[in-house]
Amino acid sequence: MSRLLIRGGRVIDPGHGVDLQGDVLVDDGRIVAVAQLLAPDSAEVLDARGLVVCPGFVDPHAHLCEPGWEHRETIATGAAAAAAGGYTSVCAMPDTDPPVDDPASVGFIVAAGRRAKGARVFPAAAVSAGRKGEHLTEFGEVVDAGAIAVTDAGRAIASSKLMRLALEYARSFDIPVLSHPEDADLARDGVMHEGVVSTRLGLKGKPSAAEEIGASRDLALAAATGGRLHLQRVSTAVAAARIRQAKECGVNVTAEVTAHHLLLAHEVVASYGTEFKVDPPLRTRDDTRALCAALADGTIDCIATDHAPRHYDEKEQAFDDAPFGAVGFETTFAVLHTHLVVTGKLELATLIERMSTGPRTALGLARGTLQPGEPADIVLLDPEARWTIDPGAFLSKCRNTPFAGKQVTGKVVRTLVGGRTVRDASGSPRAASAP
Amino acid sequence: MKRSAPTLGKDLTGLESLSPEQIRVILDTAEPFKEVSERQIKKVPVLRGKTIVNLFFEASTRTRISFEFAEKRLAADTVNIGAVGSSVSKGETLVDTARNLEAMRIDMVVIRHWSAGAAHFLASRIPSNVINAGDGAHEHPTQGLLDMLTLRDHFGRIEGLKVCIVGDVLHSRVARSNIYGLVALGAKVAVCAPRTLLPAGIEELGVRVFGRVEQAIEWSDALNVLRLQLERMQDGFVPSLREYNRVFGITRERLEWAPREMLILHPGPMNRGVEIDSDVADGPHSVILRQVTNGVAVRMAVLYLLTGDAPDLAEMARSGGAGRA
Question: Would the pLDDT of B160 be above 70?
């Protein structure tokens, strides 16, 4: 592969404290050098003046829906949509049909991911066979097949004993256990946050305590076992506080939060809009403020999309009957840049860190920095570009975003995976080679 | 009576979104319709030529029949659809069902559905008028209105009345509609129930909470007693029906402690001996059957007000059914 010089951008590599006006040289799919002025020599030159050049985003939590739910998304459409949002690596959740819980199904995801043109796809396998919460899957075999983590994805592990065993057994393979922290019994049948809005609307609520109990239990087990715990989609102020406390005590824990939990509170559900039906539910303004603070101070390590495509027909129902979930690949950077960075609540470098290096560390992936020798997974951002979120323009098969029609500032201009452009916002996605 | 502004708009999905003036208009409009049901020929041609579909996804006797009488006494053509034995049981979606009905050129849908927000959902997707006949635990606006009409009949006013809703507020659409409507018209509203049957943040709806029914009786001018569904005990919200009756039941002995005349309402169907004792339900304080009678009048008023091109009501009422249509 030819040499590529990305020239004259603001290069931000938060993992290594790099923030300079300069060039990035790529050769044979890997980063060769980052410096203030590099000689073009024989390289193809990509003009990045006015743009931010940073590590490609890593999504620790995405639902690509294949196999079993191909009307929602496929690995190919998911990988393309991810690239359009600046993601170069995504961790695919195993809640497919059938679930990804054995080496063969992990292998299927890996193979389909290699064929896809877009972000790299890394499967997570189920913690328990069939995601039934009864007994462990074969962690060793699924890791050999390519799984990078284990999780029952969207389903809390009800048995504390099973959770303990998972954290212990995962240590043998140095993989994280991704947990949906929730007391399922307490949250059962809830469709939104339990509070005055659910009372007004007559909808069954999930109390915050359900997440607080789940997070507290998981943290206690992580402390007891020394296992690598990653808490998914934190939505409450109390869970964030528990994580902060646990980190101070040296517990091996990382945590993620989604854009919608950072920006939206339960009042938006007021007219039963199913685009706001997500799990865990949108909570209160106090929670969103606490989550933003936890993201800024590093208590929460990474931003997840929880990209959950749902077909139009599925969301076109009464609130109780519609499924949970929102798409996130193609909006997450823009909405967070608009509401956290432009407003001065968060440094741009911190946002990039939480979207690249943070999840890289949580998942133990060798991607998400611009260090020489690393794969050239790079995203070019235009922090000034203003645009309107139009779900009709999504590459995802589904349109179920809570941010439709919103004016945003900050746009993903180009996404490179292994040095090749997989998404160029000025045109259609280009072909990418296998990583 | 003149058709007075403000109008109701296209739909009636709940009382929360109505202004006090709109609620008063409905209650005032119900008055002349009471008389229609007392006639030998119980019919005025207000809705002649209109087609109304009663779309009941949930079982209902009282509300469905009350709507049907109201529609028939206004001379509308009506069709009843239940979830069982219709395309709904074949997996058709709510919106497809409604659009197919629309394609047959209907004018109005009365919907009862198990999901909160179902009426709102339908109203925003079809051009016909939609009336909510109960959506999950959200609202049952015509029940709230008939309760208010019954209170107004007795006390001559709503403003300043102390009304306590007793029982399973958590799962009750009747409670929510009563709270919104009564608070809008200036009543003082309280709820009384075991804490397990009160929803989060209920105080923020402008109501006070009584933990014990004796306190509620001492405070209230009227009690609206909610049905305790038997499955609530199986779900563990109350330990036993016996205890519920002993601690929260409205009994004659308890009412003897009331400092003033007390009115007893119940939206039905009653569980005698659970939330209400028979000698209260059938006693002098009870207006439970008056509620049922008023239900028809209130529903006639709502149907009439939602039909924008209906002829003048006073003329229709005077004409005894012989007027233009």
Answer: yes
- State which residue of chain A sits closest to B135, comparing Cα positions: A202
- Are A86 and A412 in contact by the 8 Å Cβ rule? The answer is yes
Measured between CA atoms, the residue of chain A closest to residue B16 is A200
Chain B CB contacts of A201 under 8 Å are 116-117, 138
Q: A140 is written with which tokens?
A: 């060793």
Say if residue B6 is preceded by a cis peptide, omega within 30 of 0: yes
Cis peptide preceding B269, ω within 30 of 0: yes
Give the residue among B270, B257, B180 at the shortest CA–CA distance from B215: B257
Of A432, A316, A314, A319, the C-alpha closest to A377 is A432
**Which helix H or strand E contains A161, and what residues bound it?**
helix A160-171
Q: What are phi and psi of A407, to 5 degrees?
A: -80, 130
* Whole-number pLDDT of residue A10: 97
Per the structure, how many domains does chain A have?
2
* Alpha carbons A346 and A295: distance in angstroms, whole number: 9
Helix (H, G, I), strand (E, B) or coil at A428: coil
The reported pTM is: 0.93
A123 shares a domain with A18: no
Range of the domain at A306: 56-363
Average pLDDT over residues A307-330: 96
Say whether both A37 and A65 belong to one domain: no
What's the mean pLDDT in A14-32? 94
Inter-chain residue contact A201 with B201, CB threshold 8 Å: no
Q: What is the rounded CA–CA span in Å between residue B281 and residue B288?
A: 7
Phi and psi for A78 in degrees, rounded to 5?
-65, -45
Among B15, B95, B115, B176, the strongest candidate for a mutation testing the A interface, having the largest count of A CBs within 10 A, is: B115
Same domain, A70 and A41: no
Chain B nearest-CA residue for A318: B118
Q: Which residues of A are catalytic?
A: 306
What DSSP state is assigned to residue B223?
A: E
Decide if A370 is inside a domain. Answer: no
The C-alpha atoms of residue A262 and residue A368 are separated, in whole angstroms, by 22
The two tokens of residue A385 are 């570009």
Domain end, chosen from A363, A391, A406, is at A363
Q: Which residues of B touch A317 (CB under 8 A)?
A: 93-95, 121
CB < 8 Å from B in window 195-234 of A: 195-196, 198-205, 207
A155 within domain boundaries: yes
Nearest to A318 among B121, B139, B202 (CB): B121
A128 with A218, same domain: the answer is yes
The alpha-carbon radius of gyration of chain A (Å, integer) is: 20
CB proximity A316 to B under 8 Å: yes
> What is the ipTM metric for this complex?
0.91
φ, ψ for residue A129 (rounded to 5)? Answer: -60, 130
Q: In this structure, are A30 and A110 located in the same domain?
A: no
What does residue B55 show for φ and ψ, rounded to 5 degrees?
A: -105, 95
